[in-house]
């Protein structure tokens, strides 16, 4: 017999969490405090800040999250490579005093600076931009989006996306790679730092191909905790194989927006994760908030 009891409000408005966001501490355009405010305004229950190769935004995000009464999960997106391919690894709840990991991250950030400087030197032969305009005044993880912003400000392109298409993608003579940590080694360091590692956007369309079942299995064996299967830049036709492998391995599956403020069209919360997933991550890490 069907129950006549009203369904609790919780069912209609189940708590959702955006587990992948960027601030001005890397290549987002929003301050961490403003992301927390936007999270509250959009009706999400909480978020993770996952700036590229830095945790410098954590304190501001944590304080603002208390103010706006949303839950905060400290995170980072690490520049790694596996089998010669660039792979971004999200890490949650790492201990900020984990020396080995943060020494490696310092190396990644130093390499990013040198590489961006050389790319700007090449680009400046054809476009009137300066290193000062790219590097900016703040201490943030420098990437190609900051070169894109300088090109947009100088009036060459309408937005970051167009600057990437025309000047910044790996097929151009201006492109230079950057140091990335081996993905398996990164997973080991994240675990040693009390965190959990989640493979970011494994089916992003800008990649040459999706992460293969063989590679996903190897990363699982190295200690991978989860995989971000819902992401705005995923190619739908690449997903079924990944979903199948993730289910077979018992990986935690997350969804996130990869919000970059005005730097990308991704909208905050356009993909998200459940409270069960959020709690599972928090219960598994050294620095849960
Ligand atoms: P980098 O870390 O310097 O190699 O630059 C990669 C970053 O650029 C990624 O984190 C993306 O957020 C961003 N990105 C890549 N393609 C685009 C695009 N078409 N439009 C805007 N941002 C992009
Ligand atoms: Fe980015
Ligand atoms: Fe990424
Ligand atoms: Zn990202």
Name the helicity range: 25-40%
As a percent range, the share of strand residues is 15-25%
Q: Count the beta strands.
A: 9
Oligomer: single chain
Give the number of helices: 11
- pLDDT average, as an integer? 95
- Report, as a whole number of angstroms, the end-to-end distance: 44 Å
Ligands (ions, cofactors included)? adenosine monophosphate, fe (iii) ion, zinc ion
Radius of gyration: 19 Å
Which structural class do the helices and strands define? Answer: alpha/beta
Q: Give the low-pLDDT segments.
A: none
Broad shape:
globular
Largest sheet entry? 9 strands, mixed
Description:
It contains 11 helices and 9 strands. With 289 residues, the chain is α/β, with parallel strands linked by helices. α2 (32-41) packs parallel to α3, α6 (144-153) crosses α7 (160-168) and α9 (213-222) runs parallel beside α10. Residues 77, 88, 200-201 line the site of one fe (iii) ion.
Describe the secondary structure blueprint for this structure.
Elements: H1 9-12, E1 16-21, H2 32-41, E2 46-49, H3 58-68, E3 71-82, E4 85-92, H4 99-123, H5 131-135, H6 144-153, H7 160-168, E5 181-182, H8 183-192, E6 196-199, H9 213-222, E7 226-230, H10 239-249, E8 252-255, E9 273-274, H11 275-283
Parallel strand pairs: 1-2, 2-3, 3-5, 6-7, 7-8
Antiparallel strand pairs: 1-9, 3-4, 4-6
Helix pairs in contact: 2-3, 6-7, 9-10
Bound molecules: adenosine monophosphate, fe (iii) ion (2 copies) and zinc ion.
Zinc ion is lined by residues 20, 22, 77, 258.
Would you kindly provide a brief summary of this structure?
With 289 residues, this protein is of the alpha/beta class. It has helices spanning 9-12, 32-41, 58-68, 99-123, 131-135, 144-153, 160-168, 183-192, 213-222, 239-249, 275-283, and strands spanning 16-21, 46-49, 71-82, 85-92, 181-182, 196-199, 226-230, 252-255, 273-274.
């Amino acid at each position: 017999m069907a129950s006549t009891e009203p369904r609790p409000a919780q069912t209609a408005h189940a708590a959702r969490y955006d587990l992948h966001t960027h601030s001005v501490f890397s290549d987002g355009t929003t301050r961490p405090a403003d992301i927390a405010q936007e999270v509250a305004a959009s009706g999400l229950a909480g978020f993770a800040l996952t700036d590229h190769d830095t945790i410098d935004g954590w304190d501001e995000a944590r304080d603002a999250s208390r103010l706006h009464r949303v839950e905060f999960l400290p995170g980072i997106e690490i520049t790694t490579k596996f089998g010669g391919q660039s792979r971004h690894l999200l890490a949650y709840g790492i201990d900020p005093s984990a020396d080995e990991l943060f020494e490696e991250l310092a190396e990644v950030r130093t390499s990013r600076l040198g590489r961006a400087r050389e790319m700007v030197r090449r680009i400046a032969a054809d476009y009137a931009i300066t290193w000062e305009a790219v590097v900016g005044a703040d201490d943030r993880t420098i990437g190609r989006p900051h070169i894109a912003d300088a090109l947009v400000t100088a009036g060459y392109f309408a937005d970051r996306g167009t600057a990437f298409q025309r000047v910044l993608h790996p097929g151009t003579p201006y492109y230079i790679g950057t140091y990335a940590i081996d993905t398996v080694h990164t997973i080991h360091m994240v675990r040693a730092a009390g965190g959990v590692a989640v493979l970011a956007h494994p089916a992003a369309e800008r990649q040459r191909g999706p992460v293969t079942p063989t590679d996903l299995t190897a990363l699982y064996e190295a200690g991978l905790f989860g995989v971000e299967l819902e992401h705005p830049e995923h190619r739908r036709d690449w997903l079924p194989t990944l979903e199948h492998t993730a289910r077979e391995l018992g990986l935690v599956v997350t969804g996130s927006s990869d919000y970059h403020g005005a730097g990308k069209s991704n909208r905050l919360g356009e993909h998200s994760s459940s409270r069960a997933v959020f709690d599972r991550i928090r219960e598994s890490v050294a620095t849960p908030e």
